[in-house]
Amino acid sequence: MAVCSIIGYKGNSYAAPLLVESLKKMEYRGYDSVGIATIENGNILVKKGVGKVAQVSKTLDLQNMPGQIGIGHTRWATHGGITDTNAHPHEGCSSEIAVVHNGIVENYKELKKDLIASGHSFKSETDSEVIAHLLEEEYSQLHDKVQAIVQVCNKLDGAYAFVAVFGDSTICGSRYDEPLIIGLPDNGYFISSDVLGFLQYTDKAIFLDNKDIVVITGENLSLYDSSGKAVSRSITQVAWELGAADKGIYAHHTLKEIHEQKKTVLKGMIQNEEDLTRFCDILLNAKSIYITGSGTSYHCALLAKHIFAKLAKVRVEPVISSEFQYVLDFIDKDSVILAISQSGETADVLNSVKHAKELGAKILSIVNISTSSLARISDSFLTVNCGPEIGVAATKSFTGQLAVFYTVIDKLCNSAIGINSKRQAIESAIELLLSTEEQTIRIADLLKDIRDIYILGKSLHFPIALEGALKIKELTYIHAEGIAAGEIKHGPLALIDNNSIVIVINPRDNTYDDVLSNAHEIKSRGATLIGISNQSEEVYDHFIKLPNFDSILYPLVEIIPLQLLAYHLALKKNADPDYPRNLAKSVTVK
Length: 590
Ligand code: F6R
Prior knowledge:
Bound molecules: fructose -6-phosphate
Number of strands: 25
């Protein structure tokens, strides 16, 4: 049922407070309702309700639920409205099984019909509830939990990760194309959608393969493959520092992550030489290169196209991941698909690369989470290494991805950019742009009641216009549109009047004069102009100064004032910048 977070715990401590803390850490994944089931003396106790973790936890006193075994869930609705009943966990008829689920059961209607015909009655409108009833049905016939899960998984269509508890204190789960990771603290186990669910307790993890089954009975953890045969999986040490997911001195994760860019951009430039060589060799041997990603990551793909063309003289084709299936006719064994994704779990991205892989293409990826599904199915991958990004809006991962691209280009083109010798200049430029925050607060004040904002950029600056507009849309709910500056006269100029606000990204490079003319055309129709440039012009009503910089590197820094503006506009509009309405951080459903 959705882009959700799931967590299970069994161990020597009380489960409920641990589960609540874990859910808070993963709330960015989905956040319209919350629920927990714990077991005490053979009884499953379920509490769930609509709202964010802190609020529901307080109202329902989740923290004080009894028992040392339990499961928890935050939901982002896809099937069934946002109601207490549709929140997870879901129970079977007998209340001896409770289940939390992430994903979509595509054939839930047929399964539900069959289960109702066999006497099951359903409480919610969700697809997820069928898993609880199916498991109950299979277990009542087979009396073997592993075999029951094998049968359940065989019947589910679509991607899933689920964790179930039985009244006899067994906890178990399985996954297919949705993440499920086991955390191994002393004296217990976690089963989680994300390492952030247990990273404060342990950095030891087992990443389950697709269709693996985990069963924890007593103090023992056992793993099985999709046929129910026992398997073993290696233990990975997770690298992120504890505490990296906290807000620190900042009011919101988003603001912290914007400020972290001073460091994270530099981290993106540090790549293991062997990995980089392998990655670049695959690119060099490609007959055709497609770059794919969703949302912000797609904007990075658009920038990569310009950077590859300008410096490597290589043609790469950016394709939005959700559109990728329509270019499959052109993909063959000589193609390379370079996928960009912060999470490495975005369903549209994973589907694209899976289709391409089936056609024989090589898969490269740039990911922030090196243990993600995308990294694991890639022939070679590079990491952004910017630490956990909790704010739903991508900020530091975007500039981090870009930093990786500059590094790749330097490797391919004999240090054409010389990125490593420019680290200091980049750091100072980012610092300078971060210091425009006060200015962006004043501009946010002027824009807070505006209905539409247009952002113009040309060439390298057009993807930044798109990305700036995306940040404003998702954080502030104001309609914002990124426009290729030269296109203004082909239609959008008709929208411009005395009330229009237009942001013009125009640092001095080969696009400067053309974009300045566009700015004048807009100004003469009465609009208010905000210029982002290293050169001030009379045409701008407000001006954010960029440093003098290598023109190819401008995208890395010119996005920062737009991120800050979106953040402060969100505050002025009383919107929560960390958790925009209707959105989830990792969109693991189609
Ligand atoms: C926008 C945003 C989304 C993501 C998109 C892809 O701020 O965060 O548009 O960029 O959902 O996510 P990843 O990069 O995890 O594949």
